[in-house]
Amino acid sequence: MTEMPALDLAALLASRICHDLISPVGAVINGLEVLDEDEDGEMREVALDLIRKSARSASARLQFARLAFGFAGSAGASVDLADAERVAKAYVGSDRAQLDWMVPPGYGPKDRVKLALTLVALSQQAIPRGGHIVLRSESAGLESLVITATGQPSRIPSGLAQLFAGEAEMPLDAHAAVGFYAGLLARSIGLTVTIDKDGDVVHFRAG
To answer: Does residue 75 register a pLDDT over 70?
Structure first.
């Protein structure tokens, strides 16, 4: 089993979060520069629209990272699944995809919610041009999860199965860190994550 110092994994996840934020934050800056330099009414409205959309995207990505990788709601051992659904849908919606959250309402164990969110993020890599993601679980306890990602093209991201199994070659980069983290998280709660592909559909299973 591949091992990684906790500080190295934390640094890689931080790098991944920064990577996700660079684009929308940069777009906000560009929009502000247009407002400073151009007094044309039409261009100002375009700039304001860019700022609004980019600020929403940055906020969605931050809230997602806080819940999936951080200690959000750390006062308790469970997370309101309605909050998890809202965060996940905002995150996926900022990247040309749609998410259906098919989980009974209630409160889920924190680490299982983190795993669900992390797998949702990874499922986007399976449909790089966007598409439809469905997360299913039979109970609010998230004892098992099935996530399907449907799109054209669809793919199994290179090396992801090895990352889930904790058998990846070192060193890892920030892009691979999320898959490695998902595998660690799953094993810590007694689950195994697998991935397979059937036509245009990629299946992620945790159970």
So the answer is: no
